[in-house]
Specification:
Layout lengths: L4 E6 L13 H20 L3 E6 L2 H16 L7 H26 L6 E3 L3 E4 L11 E7 L1 H11 L2 E4 L5 E5 L4 E4 L2 H9 L3 E6 L3 E5 L5 E3 L6 H11 L4 E5 L5 E3 L7 E3 L1 E3 H10 L8 H13 L4 E5 L4 H5 L5 E4 L1
Parallel strand pairs: 1-2, 1-12, 2-9, 3-9, 4-10, 12-16, 15-17
Antiparallel strand pairs: 4-8, 5-7, 6-7, 10-11, 13-14, 16-17
Helix pairs in contact: 1-3, 2-3, 6-8, 7-8
């Protein structure tokens, strides 16, 4: 690509500020704030693809489906719930991005691509599902679901029982050509929602949804590699990355090389598996595949981080 292209991955949790601001109206306000920072980036000359997490949102959708099932309504499968969350969050981001572009006087269209991501049915994650989804159940409810639906259920820290599903590694983006065409046309593109709707390719070539969730940082890293983006930007809850986080030796990192990032990951003590570790790993894969630079910061500091004033920059 000849344009300066960034893949931006924003967390689903970033649209929910706290437990008192979980409504769609609250998420819209948060999406508008994030869109404002991304539009500033567009104004500075970047073409962007915006990916997003969907953890809290797909959880809400599942809980509504579980309540509906008790009233006799058929419960949607997990892949369908993921698609619903892509539409919901994509709509919010597309609308707020449109409005923010208009305020800046930038005549640039915005499009949201519903996106499927192919995973390997033999991925080890399917044999060891660990990602909790949906609401809490009693032990009897959970075991009944395991028997009737084939769910894997676990007791969750004394709070009740929950379903757990696999989190496989993303392998292929089904709508890649469409996303590339939109970028080339100068269209602000929203895609790779929730890491992508997980699907498998059957022997006859057909696609089929599976009960799994894909890490959104891994999904967006794959996209960044496939389109040979200039930048992978992971927007998260912290301004910078820290090593030895929460200890007397805590140190905030302004810059690190690919080699340093890999060394920190191998030490296994710096980044938690459910928070910073997948972000660092996503950056590592991007840089190993020829990416120029990756940046981790929070939404309000995107502009400053791009100017080198804050954030954590990781280079090859």
């Amino acid at each position: 690509m000849t344009k300066k292209v960034a893949v931006i991955a924003i967390g689903g949790n970033s649209l929910i500020k706290d437990k008192d601001h979980q409504s769609c109206a609250d998420q819209y306000i948060a999406a508008d704030e994030t869109s404002k920072h991304i539009v500033n980036m567009i104004e500075a000359g970047w073409e962007v693809v915006v990916g997003h997490g969907n953890g809290p949102q797909v959880g809400f959708i599942l809980q509504k489906a579980e309540l509906g099932e008790k009233e006799g309504l058929a419960m949607a499968s997990l892949d369908v719930c993921g698609a619903q969350s892509q539409g919901q969050i994509g709509y919010m981001l597309a609308q707020t991005m449109h409005n923010q572009l208009r305020k800046k006087g930038i005549d640039k269209p915005v499009a949201c691509v519903l996106e499927q991501t192919i995973v390997d049915p033999n991925d080890p994650a399917f044999k060891n599902p660990t990602k909790p989804i949906g609401g809490f159940m009693s032990e009897s409810e959970a075991k009944a679901k395991a028997a009737s639906e084939g769910w894997t259920v676990v007791e969750d820290a004394g709070r009740g029982w929950r379903r757990v599903v696999a989190s496989p590694i993303p392998k292929e983006i089904v709508e890649l050509d469409a996303i590339q065409a939109l970028i080339e046309a100068g269209i602000v593109t929203i895609s790779i929602g929730g890491g992508g709707i997980p699907v498998i390719r059957k022997e006859n070539g057909d696609l089929e949804g599976v009960a799994a969730v894909i890490d959104k940082d891994f999904g967006n890293s794959l996209l960044a590699r496939e389109i040979k983006a200039d930048l992978l930007l992971i927007s998260t809850a912290v301004e910078k990355v820290a090593i030895n986080f929460g200890t007397p030796d805590e140190k905030w990192i302004d810059k690190m090389t690919l080699a340093e990032a890999k060394a920190y990951m191998e030490e296994g003590k710096h980044f938690k598996s459910g928070s910073m570790a997948p972000k660092i790993q996503a950056c590592i894969w991007f840089l190993e595949a020829g990416g120029k630079q990756a940046l981790i910061t929070n939404p309000e500091n995107i502009g400053r981080a791009l100017r080198g004033e804050t954030g954590t920059l990781i280079t090859a």
